[in-house]
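User: Before I run my own analysis I want an independent prediction to cross-check against. Here's the chain; please return only the structure tokens and, at the end, one sentence I can use as a sanity check.
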Amino acid sequence: MQFELRAITQEGRVESLDLHALDEASAREQASSRGYTVLTVRRKSNLLALRFERSDRFPVLLFSQELLVLLNAGLPLVAAIETLAEKERHAEFRTVLERIASTLRQGRALSAALEQYPNAFSPLYVATVRASERTGDLAPALLRYVAYQNQLDAIRKRLVNASIYPALLIGVGGLVSLFLLLYVVPRFSRIYEERGADLPLFSKFLLLWGQTVEGHALVVVGALILLGAALWYAARRAGARAAIENALWGLPAVGEKMKVYQLARFYRTIGMLLRGGMPLVGALEMGAELLHPVLRERLFAASRTISEGRSVSESMDRYGLTTPVALRLLSVGEHSGNMGEMMDRIAIFHDEEIGRWVDWFTRLFEPILMAVIGVVIGAIVILMYMPIFELAGSLR
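Assistant: Structure tokens:
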């Protein structure tokens, strides 16, 4: 991320600095290491920064995989992290690793070192490491996290891959429609205007649009560009995304599948934390951030009920946080004492269910989308040629 700092130099002058850092704390430390006294820090927001913000995130999964390999090879934890820092080419990431190694050399725990960089390491990751420190099994904990993240990435990639073709159809259909409306229709409107032809009502509306574009092309194109920019900006706003999610959540079929998808992620997370040694109530609180606000409120109520001594399956089912399959597997987990494994099985079952539904919906949605695009483009073409068809009919 790009930050703008106002700082005092060693000579007493006030200067502005532009620094690239992982978070605000890292930006302050960079300036302090150069001898500046920082007054204010402000994150710079521009289109270029927004474009590359995602690529500047710390690669936690790769870090975990490499650290796991080095630990299994017999290296001590500090030496392993120092090795990763030496081979890291990204300056910010190398600085983070060096500071983590420095914190470990001071005798502090790895979870405490990771906790200093919340923009790099999520609370879930820190909690996983902290739970492993109690049992002394950091390598198995990292292996569980890598498997957990790979499974989440697999279902996420499946959803993205399923949306590529529909998005391509919408994009091509939109470009063709814009070409007809912005280039072809204005020329037809000029021809019919010069000949004074009597047009059908809908053709008049379409050709009126063509005349508007012909006379105010820059205004129309500028308005379309501003509309596209506004939609893009709104899509990046958390409030807009939440509104879209709430609207989808209200749809009967789609909302139910979104609930199942969130519950699958939730159960997979809880299962990983339980197998890492974290208490159940603490794991439930940690997984709450993965849920929709409606489900989150239900989870808090279920957690209170579990804390009062009620069974997990009964509490989760009482507040609508289970499916029939999940309820039965939770009951089995309670009786067998292997709740973590049962939650993993719940997640696997529902991931497969979501995958089957995505495949079915894609097969149904794609031909419907193609038909809708064809109808829109066909309607524009027919309305443009309607006067010619009527003229040909009158000649007969």
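Sanity check: The chain has three domains: 2-55, 58-148, 149-396.
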